[in-house]
Amino acid sequence: MKNLLLLLLFSSNFALAQLDIIQRFPLQDSTESINHSLILNAPNGDLLYFFLENNLLYYSRSNDKGLSWNEKILIDELYASTYNSTCNKFVGVVTKSSKIIIIYKRPDLNFYLIYSDNNGLNWSIPNQILPSYILSFPQITEVNDSTLWYLFSHGGDLKYIESKDNGESWSEKTLIWENI
């Protein structure tokens, strides 16, 4: 069970375009960290690149496998923590039902979920799923029965919350491992 959870925690669900040279994403401010970015493959095949810039969450779309990108679009304001940079990492998943889900931390320090049911063209109003915590290594994944798991380290323990209704509601925190 522990090996399966670690595999889920560190798995990826997308393929990226092959580049000849490594270069910074052209629409992101060059002073911002690329550690706070995420690429998801939308159900229609477009690539969606999510990134932070000046404490704002943006995304851009590519419909040619990453060779060119549309202008950046603001999704929501995010909180950039100065005491623990892993707190402001955001995660995302594309579900089997084609819903794109992003989980992130907002200025009130709580964790929120936004989603799109139409390939990232429109986004939901942010919905709080966790109160303020210092989290490390957040990850979201969908398991075979379409249950969503949001895994994270909190206080040295590995915990998760789950949703059985495509992210509409979430369970209480469940401990997986102590003192990892």
Task: Report on the architecture of this protein.
With 180 residues, the chain is mainly β. It has a single domain (2-9, 37-177), classed as 6 Propeller (Neuraminidase), CATH 2.120.10. The chain is 4% helix and 39% strand. The strands form three sheets. The protein has a four-stranded antiparallel sheet, with no helix packed on it. A four-stranded antiparallel sheet has the order 5-6-7-8, with no helix packed on it. A four-stranded antiparallel sheet has the order 9-10-11-12, covered by helices on one side.
Provide a concise account of the structure shown.
With 180 residues, the chain is mainly beta.
List the helices and strands and how they pair.
Elements: H1 2-9, E1 37-41, E2 47-53, E3 56-62, E4 73-77, E5 91-94, E6 100-105, E7 111-116, E8 127-130, E9 135-142, E10 148-154, E11 157-163, E12 174-177
Antiparallel strand pairs: 1-2, 2-3, 3-4, 5-6, 6-7, 7-8, 9-10, 10-11, 11-12
If you average the pLDDT, what whole number results?
Answer: 80
Biggest sheet: strands side by side, in what order? 1-2-3-4
Judging by the overall fold, what is the CATH architecture?
6 Propeller
Number of strands: 12
CATH topology: Neuraminidase
Order of helices and strands: HEEEEEEEEEEEE
Number of helices: 1
